[in-house]
Amino acid sequence: MVTKVLALLALVLAPLAGAQTAYRLLQADYQGRQIGSKHYSADGYVTLPRGSAKPYKAVMVLPVNSTSPEALADYTQQKSSLSCVLLVLPSSWDSSGMPAADASNLLRLEQQLLAAPAQVPVFFAKETAALADAVAETHAMFERGAPPTLQTDRYQLALQGKMPTQLASKQATNYVATLRAADDHLKLGVPPPPALLLTAHFDSFSLAPGSPAGADAAASGAAACLLLLRLLHRLYASPETRPSRNVMVLLTTGGPYGQQGLLHWAADADPAQLEAIEAAIVLDSIGGSVAVQQQAATDSLRRQQPQLHMHHAADSSSSSSSSNVAWVDAVAAAAARMGVQLTAVQQEVAAGTDAAAAASASLGHEHLARKGVPAVSLSYMTAAPVGQQPRVSSLADTAAAINLDRVLDAAQVAADAISRWLYPQLEPQLCLLDLSSEPQQHRDFLAGWIKLLSTAPSMMPFDKADPGISLLHENIFQFMRTHSHSAKRHMWTPAGTPASITAFGGTTATMRVLKAAGFMQDMLLLAAVLLYLGGLWVVLVVATRGWAELRAMWAPKPATRRRNTKGGSSSNSSKRS
């Protein structure tokens, strides 16, 4: 008897095995603009985009490499009877195996989801064997002319997530580390020595915040900044090599939203400190991944070696115009010495207020140029993204897609330019910061930080309640404090933040693939289970109480006369009287 009960429980619980993680479409950005549905769970049978009908209570499964933005809009922008839409990502993507067409199509789908709010829940999931089998069997059903319905044999998808929570903090955090010159004693009234600024943003914006993303768009530049900070700290640690100039390494947040973190830092900085900055380098998207190189429309173009670009913007009205030209030439000369091909891209600084600047800027050197700081941005992007607010990090932008050789090339150009700015009399044939001296150690360092920076949920940086983001912030600050003379946090409030912010909780869901029978088979199975349980109950009653007790339970009970308490009391009262 016990064996049969255990077998029945195993039969019921077996379909729950093999759960995988799915990622929910972002509900809203930090400005409160709706993007995805508020629903965080879904349940329905698997269907495919075959025919014009929208099945009832079904999960529409769409592979990202073969779904057009128009088809996606048809299923997400109109209220329909679908339970949800599931976008299936390939099981693995890397820089050598992903066709440019797939990466480009995924970016188009992401832009489509960003353009108009989804009316049905949207989830992303990596392709697994169970999901692939379900799709293949469902496709075979359509080919046989018997598409799945609630009344037929089918595959069922169950996605269970958590309800979004409310954010407690409304502030973002920048981190700045300073390496001080030998004669920098922080005396009052004494102007600070010349300084150089090395900066990158480390946060990303992804439409599926729980999924790793932004390895190239954000993590590559931040990891290179930390590597250069560690190498520069060695120079400053020795009295023989300590320069007479300062270096500041700044890691910012708000990068996807017009580089707002850098904008606020420049606005809040001490005027004397800002005036002392003679040069700046911004590292942005230096991983050379195909997820960022969306300009390459064909595989043949994608296979070409990515080329490093130096973006710079000169304000013709600024007195630092000549200094900017000199710094641009210095960085170009550093690239030539290092054997790295570099293409200069110049654009005019857009006039306007800081708010307008934040809405138009996509690379950090633009904000610095408005402050009169000679600045360049090193990036493998051939052109700065225009009109993308926020700037989306594609789900294909993962650590596996990073080309570490490209990161080292960009970091080496920056290292040589910085070292020659620190030591103007340095011989041309010398290279103080030679990254080729310990290549494997540097590669391991970059790979570790890129993985950490891109694995943390790509939510808004002020969500300190998330354990992953909180740990990431602490690791960054501790590293910068260990490898500098001083490290500080710079708090800022994102522009346009509403009074209340909805956190992006419930960004992941547990997804299970179940094999479900048709309606009649479901009813027969239910009847069989009920019959089995009824028989088990009869056996237990007979074994414990006997047949007589069982017959007594089902025997009709004799009718009893209901006593009229009130009438009886009246009769007795009359007799006594």
Number of domains: 2
CATH level-four homologous superfamily name of the largest domain: Zn peptidases
- Which stretches are low in confidence, meaning pLDDT under 50 for 5 or more residues running? 1-17, 295-302, 565-577
State the strand order across the main sheet: 12-11-13-10-8-9-7-14
Helix content bin: 25-40%
Which second-level CATH architecture of the largest domain applies?
3-Layer(aba) Sandwich
Tell me the Rg in angstroms. Answer: 33 Å
CATH topology of the largest domain: Aminopeptidase
Q: Quickly give the structural class.
A: alpha/beta
The overall strand count is 15
CATH class of the largest domain: Alpha Beta
| Distance between the ends | 69 Å
Number of helices: 17
Classify the beta-strand content into a percent band.
15-25%
The pLDDT mean sits at: 80
Shape: elongated
What would you note in describing this structure?
There is one protein chain. 39% of the residues lie in helices and 17% in strands. The chain has an eight-stranded mixed sheet with strand order 12-11-13-10-8-9-7-14, sandwiched between helices. The chain has a seven-stranded mixed β-barrel with strand order 1-5-4-3-2-6-15. It folds into two domains: 15-166 and 506-516; 172-492, Zn peptidases (Aminopeptidase). The chain is of the alpha/beta class and 577 residues long. α12 crosses α13. The protein has 17 helices and 15 strands. The termini are far apart. Keywords: Endoplasmic reticulum, Glycoprotein, Membrane, Signal, Transmembrane, Transmembrane helix. It is found in: Endoplasmic reticulum membrane. Residues 297-321 are annotated as: Disordered.
